[in-house]
Specification:
The complex is a heterodimer of chains A (116) and B (114).
Chain A: E1 3-5, E2 10-14, E3 19-21, E4 24-26, E5 32-38, E6 44-50, E7 56-58, E8 64-68, E9 73-78, E10 87-94, E11 105-106, E12 110-115
Parallel strand pairs in A: 2-12
Antiparallel strand pairs in A: 1-4, 3-9, 5-6, 5-10, 7-8, 8-9, 10-11, 10-12
Chain B: E1 4-7, E2 10-13, E3 19-25, E4 32-38, E5 44-51, E6 57-58, E7 67-73, E8 76-81, E9 90-97, E10 103-105, E11 109-113
Parallel strand pairs in B: 2-11
Antiparallel strand pairs in B: 1-3, 3-8, 4-5, 4-9, 5-6, 7-8, 9-10, 9-11
The chains are: A mainly beta (116), B mainly beta (114).
């Protein structure tokens, strides 16, 4: 069985500040990990994914995440927050493949608020 | 990237009626489609997985007779909520994947049952 824990259901940062959204996973096999963003009343958009290649993964909109096996973590960061980053962020894990014919298990989400 | 659409984007219906939600992959052939349910301020919960031409595989606890899924073509899957009740009110999201295996998500459908 696999699971994802996102610490902090709400995170608030100032515009221009570092964004750090935490994600820890549990998986009995090497995981494939994903971060998605969801804007209000919309579907999910893939930010980045880890598929056992480089441990530091760069995604869209300046986001990146680092896979740390020893810490079972896949935290999402962005050096400088922008107002347009305000949204819900979901971490997800797949136990095999990278989410095509394979099921994704989502975390509970983190609402990011960006303040002036 | 690939585009997935859902129709309708929102629907309000009376208790006891059935509602059909469509999920279409607009520019690729989707061999697999997934249906998720999302309650307010909560995560996405996978309801079922469907492969074109096959019966859907439902997650534990999801009533297959209540949530009918049809994946009749490589570009269309439908979810029918039968005899809907207020507790079925939710945000339903589909995703689709093709040969490259990435899941692309639809914009979701807001269902409100009165």
């Amino acid at each position: 069985a696999q699971s994802v824990t996102q610490l902090g259901s709400h995170v608030s940062v100032s515009e221009g500040a570092l964004v750090l959204l935490r994600c820890n996973y549990s998986s009995s096999v090497p995981p494939y990990l994903f971060w998605y963003v969801q804007y209000p009343n919309q579907g999910l958009q893939l930010l980045l994914k880890y598929t056992s290649a480089a441990t530091l993964v760069k995604g869209i909109n300046g986001f990146e995440a680092e896979f740390k096996k020893s810490e079972t973590s896949f935290h999402l960061t962005k050096p400088s927050a922008h107002m347009s980053d305000a949204a819900e962020y979901f971490c997800a894990v797949s136990d095999s493949g990278w989410g095509g014919g394979n099921k994704l298990t989502f975390g509970t989400g983190t609402q990011l608020k960006v303040e002036l | 990237g690939a585009v997935v659409s859902q129709h309708p984007s929102w629907v309000i219906c009376k208790s006891g009626t059935s509602v059909k939600i469509e999920c279409r992959s607009l520019d690729f052939q989707a061999t697999t489609m997934f249906w998720y349910r999302q309650f307010p301020k909560q995560s996405l919960m996978l309801m079922a997985t469907s492969n074109e031409g096959s019966k859907a595989t439902y997650e534990q606890g999801v009533e297959k007779d209540k949530f009918l899924i049809n994946h009749a073509s490589l570009t269309l899957s439908t979810l029918t909520v039968t005899s809907a009740h207020p507790e079925d009110s939710s945000f339903y999201i589909c995703s689709a994947s093709g040969r490259d295996n990435e899941q692309f998500f639809g914009p979701g459908t807001r269902l409100t049952v009165l």
